[in-house]
């Protein structure tokens, strides 16, 4: 049977709007509480080196005051490691980070950074934190993930979302499907995210090996028009519709 698909709601851009005026509104913690009541399974927040959106205090409060598990996205630096070990979130997703990028531009190069990542991941795992690596849908990066000891991957769906709808998007979808199959066959938990919207989520939700989607920017943008509760519920419905197609294919 196809596993239930979890939804992690990324609240970074609630903090982006708050920080535009330097005050307290809108409050990411309130968005997290609302996401919980709208049916999210987890909260995702990226603590960036430059603190452009989520702050250290946000992380502290998300851990202390929100019942949902927190997946902390962070770069593999000593500063972030000490923050993660201090707060012990349920999960840490390691992402590449460049100061001048607008958003995470590609997956982590696990092959190139294996020597640094292996001990880093071990320290997180020793603290009981579930580590995932944000990678492109590449077989070589998946195999390197196994070699460095991470139990989970998050497949970068940004290219799939950005390319033209039609054959280019189908080609990207096939890469993601093959990557998900390969990773699951090696025993990795498979998640996916980046750039997903109501229009693009269905085919990704239909991939049976994927157990979690992490979605932020589109939901916060859509919340401007319809409210966060409605945006999250509609996203869940779109995910479930896609998932039902996966179950249909399997049982047919
Ligand atoms: N997953 C990871 C690892 C990310 O870095 C991001 C963006 O912070 C997301 C998911 C969510 O992407 P988006 O905000 O485009 O939905």
Description:
The protein has 252 residues and is an alpha/beta fold. It has one domain: TIM Barrel, CATH 3.20.20.70. It has 11 helices and 8 strands. The protein has an 8-stranded parallel barrel with strand order 1-2-3-4-5-6-7-8, surrounded by 6 helices. Helix 4 links the parallel strand 3 (70-74) and strand 4 (91-94). The longest helix is centred in the C-terminal third of the chain and has 24 residues, at 228-251. The radius of gyration is 17 Å and the shape is globular. The relative contact order is 0.15. The model has no long low-confidence stretch (mean pLDDT 94). Residues 10, 12, 46, 73, 93, 95, 103-104, 134, 154, 193-196, 214-218 line the site of pyridoxine-5'-phosphate.
Key descriptive features of the protein:
single chain, 252 residues, TIM Barrel, 11 helices, 8 strands, binds pyridoxine-5'-phosphate
Give the helix/strand layout.
Blueprint: E1 6-10, H1 12-21, H2 28-37, E2 42-46, H3 56-65, E3 70-74, H4 78-87, E4 91-94, H5 114-126, E5 130-135, H6 139-148, E6 152-156, H7 158-162, H8 167-185, E7 189-193, H9 201-205, E8 210-215, H10 217-226, H11 228-251
Parallel strand pairs: 1-2, 1-8, 2-3, 3-4, 4-5, 5-6, 6-7, 7-8
The chain binds pyridoxine-5'-phosphate.
Pyridoxine-5'-phosphate is lined by residues 10, 12, 46, 73, 93, 95, 103-104, 134, 154, 193-196, 214-218.
């Amino acid at each position: 049977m196809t596993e239930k698909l979890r939804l992690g709601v990324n609240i970074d851009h609630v903090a982006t709007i708050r920080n535009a005026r330097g005050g307290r509104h809108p409050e990411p913690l309130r968005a997290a509480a609302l996401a919980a009541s709208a049916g999210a399974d987890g909260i995702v927040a990226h603590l960036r080196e430059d603190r452009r959106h989520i702050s250290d205090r946000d992380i502290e409060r998300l851990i202390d005051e929100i019942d949902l598990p927190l997946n902390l996205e962070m770069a593999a630096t000593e500063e972030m490691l000490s923050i993660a070990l201090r707060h012990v979130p349920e999960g840490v997703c390691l992402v590449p980070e460049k100061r001048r990028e607008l958003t995470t531009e590609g997956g982590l190069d696990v092959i190139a950074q294996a020597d640094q990542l292996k001990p880093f991941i071990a320290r997180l795992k020793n603290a009981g934190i579930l580590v995932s690596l944000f990678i492109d849908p590449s077989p070589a990066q998946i195999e390197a993930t196994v070699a460095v000891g991470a139990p989970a991957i998050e497949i970068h769906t940004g290219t799939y979302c950005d390319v033209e709808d039609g054959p280019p998007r189908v080609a990207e979808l096939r890469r993601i499907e093959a990557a998900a199959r390969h990773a699951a066959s090696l025993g990795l938990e498979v998640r996916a995210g980046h750039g997903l919207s109501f229009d693009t989520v269905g085919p990704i939700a239909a991939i049976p090996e994927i157990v979690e989607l992490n979605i932020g920017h589109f939901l916060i943008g859509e919340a401007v028009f319809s409210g966060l509760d409605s945006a999250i519920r509609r996203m869940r419905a779109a995910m479930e519709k896609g998932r039902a197609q996966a179950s249909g294919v399997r049982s047919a």
